[in-house]
Amino acid sequence: MDIRHKLTGETLASVPGDSLREADLRELDLSEADLAGADLTGARLDDTDLIDADLREARLETAVLRGARLLRADLARASLRRARLGAPNRSRAAILAGAHLAEADLSGADLRNVELRGADLREACLNRVDARCADLREADLFRVVAHHALFIEADLREANLREADLRDSHFNDADLSRADLSGADLTSLHPEGFTVINLANCERAICAGAKMRNLSAEHVNFRFADLRGADLAHAVLGGSNLYRANVAGADFTGVELAGVETEYVNFSDARHADVPAYKTHLR
To answer: Which long-range contacts (CB under 8 A, 24 or more apart) does 69-75 make?
Structure first.
């Protein structure tokens, strides 16, 4: 079976048989390859160059892509369920900077240390992904669905997470500074469950209208954050810093604010905010 260049039709590689399922394509240069709709289930693509490749609607379930270079690759609507792109060491993780993954299914994928900077993941499915330490700076995650996902220590600076469904996921120690989480859902699929963002950096993050009920947000940096209209009912904010955050219209029902830094926060337009009398510099 021949793998051809998407523009010139030139043969880039020939694989025995008539299928690419479980094919060994390790260390090949398949840059700008035409693999749209290809069945690459279980294929070995370790250290393969797939830069600018066309992988739209391709099947890559359980495929191994550690060390693969997929810069600007088009993976729109592709299936990467349980694909292995990540590694404990960043130098062995796949690179997908600028890749197009809109509506792709990455359920259960290993994305540890993967570089997805500036990637387009709009409306993608990231349920149960392991994206610990992944680089998602400036990535577009608009309306992404990511239930029970791990974003621990991930870099999400300036990422677009508007209207994202992030229920029951873990963002412990993640960098969400200047990220846009307006309208995002950080609640839970279960009555007693919760999403976790302990120790995260949310400085200047936009969380307007975000659903954050029961959120575990201990020792979070919310300095200068936009929390207008956010639902923070029963959230745990112990040790967090709300310095100069905008909380107009935010719901603080059941939130213990005694251990929260509230200097220069105007709670006059917030809802159900029980601010201890000894707090100073309130406006």
So the answer is: 69/94, 69/95, 70/94, 70/95, 70/96, 70/99, 71/95, 71/96, 71/97, 71/98, 71/99, 72/97, 72/98, 72/99, 72/100, 73/99, 73/100, 74/36, 74/99, 74/100, 75/99, 75/100, 75/101, 75/104
Q: Say which residue the tokens 């260049």 belong to.
A: 5
Q: Give yes or no for a contact between 128 and 108, defined as CB atoms under 8 angstroms apart.
A: yes
Q: Work out the number of other CB atoms within 10 angstroms of the CB of residue 160.
A: 22
Contact 223, 244 (CB under 8 A): yes
The model scores a pTM over 0.85: yes
Q: Percentage helix, strand, coil, to 5, in the chain?
A: 0, 20, 80
Q: How many CB atoms lie within 10 A of CB 143?
A: 18
10-residue stretch averages of pLDDT, the chain, 283 residues long: 96 93 98 98 98 98 98 98 97 98 98 98 98 98 98 98 98 98 97 96 98 98 98 98 98 96 94 82 52
Helices assigned H by DSSP within 43-98? none
Place of tokens 């990637």: 119
